[in-house]
User: What shape does this take?
Amino acid sequence: MKTRQFLYALSLVAVMTSSALAKDYTLPVVSKGFQHEFWQTVKMGTEAAAKELGDKTSYVGPADETQIAEQIQLVENTMAQKPNGLLLAALDANALAPLVETANSRGIKVVTFDSGVESDIPASFVATNNRKAGAQAADALAEQVGGKGKVGIIAHVAGTTSAIERSEGFSAEMKAKYPNIQVLPVQYSDGDPQKAMDKTIDMVQANPDLAGIYATNEGATLGVANAIDSQSLKGKVKVIGFDSTEAIIGFLKSGVIQGFMVQDAYQIGYQGLKALDAAVAGQSVPKQIDIPVKYVNAKNIDTPEVDKLLYPLGKK
Assistant: This one.
């Protein structure tokens, strides 16, 4: 009898172990894009988490961050594959909300990252605290312009929560703490460097007394920096950017821009996929997971702490 009980217990452990190993969730990612280094680093994070957890993942996004209809189609195509969950960065908070409801009705768990949706359905939202980051950028630019003057904002995509919150956080901080700084109306560039460059040149020409510019993502920062450089305004118009590439680092080191906010893109992807895995498994996850940003300038760019953020996989 004891032998029979032992064999039964042993077989039960084997079944449980086999079940655990066979978890094999399918957790695709639909991003806002893939053309910027930021998105490629997010992708690395999602892939690393999936490998660690034993999940299957994939990564798609529209070619341009203005292509809301194309992203909607990508989400619909992804849901048609009947995944266990979906990790989503929404190009438009309102336009993507109905698809999140559809996913929920089909039993597909949703976690959003970077830019959320107007819905309480997602199990978690994994992102930079964009309002707080915008406020940090305002403090940095205010210091650069001496607490007075006229400053502009070159944002990325209108309707995207990250662009809205980074701009609003910046403007609110300026209004609350720096009464001698005038913030011009936000100009949107669709995250396209050429459009951001053109918008910057127009802004400078319309405001010859412009003291500084805040750019809200990678594409906007590159466009603003190229404009300032091409117009020989280095040091005259101060620039605080957002996100990091080799080119942006180069602009900082050459003095074209004075600093930038760097997100931990790898952790956004990694923590996003892990949160989705946990939600699919029925575990409780925080409704919001804040991935802190770091302000990078000429003084701290070569420190180990910043180096780890700029080169998450040691790519230098």
Summary: The chain has eleven helices and 13 strands.
